[in-house]
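My current task is to audit a protein record that another person submitted. Alongside the sequence sits a line of tokens, each denoting a local backbone shape. Please read both lines and tell me whether the tokens look consistent with the sequence. Do not assume that whoever made the record got everything right. Thanks in advance; the entry in question is below.
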Amino acid sequence: MPSITSQYLARYRRLTDADRVGPLLPVTGAQRRFVLVRSLDPSGRPDLVPMFFAFPHDTVDPERLRAAARRLAARHTALRSQPIVVRGTPVLQVGEPDVPVSRLAPAPGERAVDVLRRALASWDPQDPPLRLFLVRDDDSRDDSRAEDILAVVLDHAVCDGRSLARIVEELGAAYAEDLQEPLPSPEEMSAERAAYEEAVLLQLGAEERADTPEAAAYWADRLSAVRAHAPLPRPERVPEGSLPSGAAEASLPSYDGGVPFPGLLDACRSAAHALYGPDHVVPLGYPWGGRPAGAQPVIGCFLNTVVFPAVTGHNAGPHATADLWWDDLDRADAPFDAVVTAARSAGSSWNGLLDGLLTVDDDRRRPPLNLAGVEGREVHVDGRPVRAPFAVSVTQGAEIQLRMVWDRAVLDDDRAHRAFEALVHALRPAARTVG
């Protein structure tokens, strides 16, 4: 039987060989996952990747910023393409490099972060995949210290974590160019599009080779007991006047190399135990992978989501977790939808939704956003809706920065804080034993 990737490529070729619906490009398995997750969301909301930067008030020129963002989108096919579904087939539809820069005004009594949360909540998937929002932060009564918060927001289906550093760096470089600098020529844009399409096809080729009966049997056995254990979202769980999500953060001392990834998985298992109780097999997801061999380093979405079945109440220990993790990585190129299909073939009722997410970053990888010599300070905007019941982000550098957010329509604050304490407690010895 043909693999899911082979079937997808066949459908894509039939679609584009027949009557084209605009300029269409294939999507990677990672992009197909975001289309799948969006289809499972009752509101159809996409996954968004926002970055927030605080600048001194009135130092950002909106017109120059829009021109810079247009040049950035013109240079990268993914940043001017929308994920759509045509006749049941997910594709990217390439559009014009039009990036809106919205100057947002707070309503009476609103803060800048309230306005930004509202703007992201009203995101229209039909609009461009890259958008910028600028709002004055009036928390300070001193005009000399007032700031503007700039949000650079992307649809996750067109970018992954490895793209963000380039987007930040190139947006700053484009801002420094002359305001009248023309867009790249049609020939340059066509060449970049060809490089992007080649990278996607190379990625799909790697996924097709990884989407084997052996990999399906491995994941069927590995995930046969997986169930989604988080309670269903219940809006009445959210305390009146509260934000949709809660957050907690902590710092730990870092040592050479940081915490090994299996130690992070074990810590997330401890958090899942506190949230869902013992004797469950909880699906945790984490991004993994890279650009396919031989592909140009294009901006896009290439990192697969790998599923780790965390057994709550059972600490296998770092060595056993590491062994399982290495075995998983040998099959990590199998696309997410094929993994879900394999799990369901083994009797699991799991539909692909994850109970927890783990992302890991290196604080040296992302440069600050520099606009004409003014460096933006990256800030958090808490309270935004989250896709999973809980998500953990780890930034490793001079210190280990831990951050956990949770969906208040699913988890209550007290239980979530206990889970975060369990996460920190599990990571302290892991951090001490590194090196």
